[in-house]
C-alpha cells in the first residue's frame, strides 16, 4: 500500500469509503449543496493537505478542549471554535497543520483586542513562561498519541509523519511578545520545538507593529525585529508575516535570504480588511519565494460563502502566480467561517468546488499543501 494511503487508524485507511458515506449523508456539504464528486474525493485523498494556521491549542489551554476527541461547532454559524480535532481531520484528509500558540503578553497595550485582554486577565501565564508551557503541552500530546500525532521540527519530519499516517504538527507562535522580544528566549523556544514565529499579533511589541493599527503605518521592524529575523535564519525558523504591517513586511523582504510566508490572510482587492494583503504585497512575497495562506473567516473573505474563498484564490493566483497559493484557515481562531467551510470536514467540498471552477489538479494540490510544504522544507531542511 502506498504511504499516502496508509491511515491514521481505521478512518484514514478507509478515507474514500468514509468520505463517500459522509458525502451521501450530507456531512461534507452544507444543506442544499452538492456532495463532493468521486473525482474530487480521489484528488483530495491523493493530495498532501496542510493548513498553515489552526488555533485549536488556545481552546485546549483555555477550555480543556481535547484535540484527540471528536467535537462539532457549538455556536450558531460555527462561530469562534469547535472547528478542528484529530478524528475530523483524519476524516477530511487534513494531513497536518501549523498549530498556533496564542500567548498573553507580559505588558498589555492599548491597541490589544478586548477579547485578548479579557483572556489575559482570566489566565495566570504570560509571555515566555506561557509559550514554553504551550510547547511542552503540545509535545506531551504528541508523546501520548504516537500513532496519530507527531510534532515535527523539519520539513522532512512533516513529510515522513504524513506518509506514516500521523497528523503532522508544526509549532507556531503568534507574536514576538511570546518570547518577550529576546533572541535568547527565541533560542529557548526553538529548543522546545518552536519552528514558526509571527513577528507580531494584535499589539505592538519590541520587534514589530500590527497591520490593524493605523497609528503605526510609518513604523517598520525595530532593531530587535531585525535581530530576530537574522537569528531565525540561523536556527532556522520560518518567519510568519501575518498581522505584520506593510512597512514591516517590506523591511523583512529587504533583508531576508529565505522565503517567509503569510500564514492566514486574504486579498485586499477582493475584500477590504485591515487583515488582508495588497496586490503589491502579494506579488512581493511571491517574488521572494513565499506563499499566502488563505483564511476561511468572513472578516477575511467577506460575504459569499465558499465562493468567496474561490474568488480570493483566483485573485491571488492571477496576481502572484500558482506557487503563492496556500491554505491558512484560521479555524478555531475566534472567527466566523464562511458558509460551506464551517469546519475541517468541509475540505473535500473545497477541492470539489475548485474542480468545478475548472482548476487543474496540479494547481489544486499546490493550494491544498504542496506550496506550503515547499517553503517549510526550504527553510527547515
If you had to describe this structure to a student in words, what would you say it looks like?
It is a single chain. The protein is an alpha/beta fold and 381 residues long. Helix content is 43%, strand content 11%. The chain has helices at 9-13, 15-25, 38-46, 56-63, 86-92, 114-122, 127-144, 155-163, 183-191, 223-234, 246-255, 279-287, 298-301, 306-320, 347-356, 361-379, and strands at 50-54, 96-101, 149-151, 167-174, 194-198, 238-240, 261-265, 291-294, 325-327. Strands 1, 2, 3, 4, 5 and 6 form a six-stranded parallel β-sheet that branches. The chain has a three-stranded parallel β-sheet with strand order 7-8-9. The protein starts with 8 loop residues before the first helix and ends with a helix. The model is unreliable at 1-29 (pLDDT under 50).
Notable traits:
three-stranded parallel sheet, TIM Barrel, alpha/beta, six-stranded parallel sheet, 9 strands, disordered N terminus, 381 residues
Give the tally of structural domains: 1
Tally of separate helices = 16
Q: Cα distance, first to last residue?
A: 27 Å
Briefly, what CATH class? Alpha Beta
Q: What are the segments in which pLDDT stays under 50 over at least 5 consecutive residues?
A: 1-29
The CATH homologous superfamily is named Metal-dependent hydrolases
Given helix and strand content, the structural type is: alpha/beta
Question: Which term fits the overall shape?
Answer: globular
Amino acid at each position: 500500500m502506498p504511504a499516502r494511503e496508509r491511515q491514521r487508524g481505521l478512518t484514514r485507511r478507509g478515507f474514500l469509503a468514509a468520505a463517500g458515506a459522509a458525502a451521501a449523508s450530507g456531512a461534507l456539504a452544507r444543506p442544499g449543496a452538492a456532495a463532493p464528486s468521486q473525482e474530487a474525493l480521489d484528488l483530495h485523498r491523493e493530495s498532501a493537505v496542510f493548513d498553515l494556521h489552526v488555533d485549536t491549542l488556545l481552546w485546549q489551554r483555555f477550555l480543556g478542549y481535547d484535540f484527540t476527541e471528536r467535537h462539532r461547532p457549538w455556536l450558531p454559524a460555527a462561530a469562534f471554535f469547535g472547528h478542528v480535532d484529530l478524528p475530523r481531520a483524519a476524516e477530511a484528509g487534513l494531513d497536518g497543520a501549523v498549530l498556533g500558540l496564542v500567548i498573553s503578553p507580559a505588558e498589555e497595550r492599548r491597541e490589544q483586542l478586548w477579547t485578548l485582554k479579557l483572556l489575559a486577565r482570566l489566565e495566570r501565564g504570560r509571555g515566555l513562561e506561557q509559550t514554553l508551557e504551550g510547547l511542552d503541552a503540545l509535545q506531551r500530546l504528541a508523546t501520548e498519541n504516537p500513532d496519530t500525532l507527531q510534532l515535527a521540527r523539519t520539513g522532512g519530519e512533516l513529510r515522513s509523519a504524513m506518509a506514516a499516517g500521523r497528523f503532522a504538527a508544526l509549532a507556531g507562535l503568534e507574536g514576538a511578545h511570546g518570547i518577550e522580544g529576546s533572541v535568547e528566549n527565541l533560542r529557548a523556544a526553538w529548543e522546545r520545538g518552536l519552528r514558526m514565529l509571527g513577528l507580531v499579533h494584535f499589539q505592538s511589541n519590541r520587534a514589530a507593529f500590527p497591520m490593524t493599527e493605523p497609528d503605526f503605518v510609518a513604523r517598520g521592524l525595530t532593531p530587535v525585529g531585525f535581530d530576530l529575523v537574522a537569528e531565525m535564519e540561523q536556527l532556522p525558523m520560518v518567519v510568519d508575516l501575518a498581522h505584520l504591517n506593510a512597512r514591516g513586511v517590506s523591511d523583512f523582504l529587504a533583508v531576508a535570504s529565505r522565503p517567509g510566508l503569510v500564514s492566514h490572510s486574504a486579498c485586499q482587492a477582493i475584500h477590504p480588511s485591515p487583515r488582508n494583503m495588497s496586490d503589491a504585497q502579494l506579488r512581493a512575497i511571491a517574488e521572494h519565494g513565499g506563499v499566502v495562506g488563505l483564511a476561511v473567516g468572513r472578516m477575511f473573505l467577506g460575504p459569499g460563502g465558499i465562493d468567496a474563498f474561490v474568488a480570493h484564490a483566483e485573485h491571488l493566483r492571477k496576481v502572484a502566480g500558482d506557487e503563492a497559493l496556500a491554505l491558512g484557515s484560521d479555524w478555531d481562531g475566534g472567527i466566523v467561517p464562511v458558509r460551506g467551510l464551517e469546519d475541517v470536514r468541509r475540505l473535500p467540498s473545497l477541492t470539489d468546488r475548485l474542480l468545478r471552477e475548472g482548476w487543474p489538479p496540479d494547481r489544486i494540490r499546490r493550494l491544498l499543501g504542496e506550496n506550503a510544504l515547499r517553503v517549510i522544507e526550504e527553510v527547515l531542511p
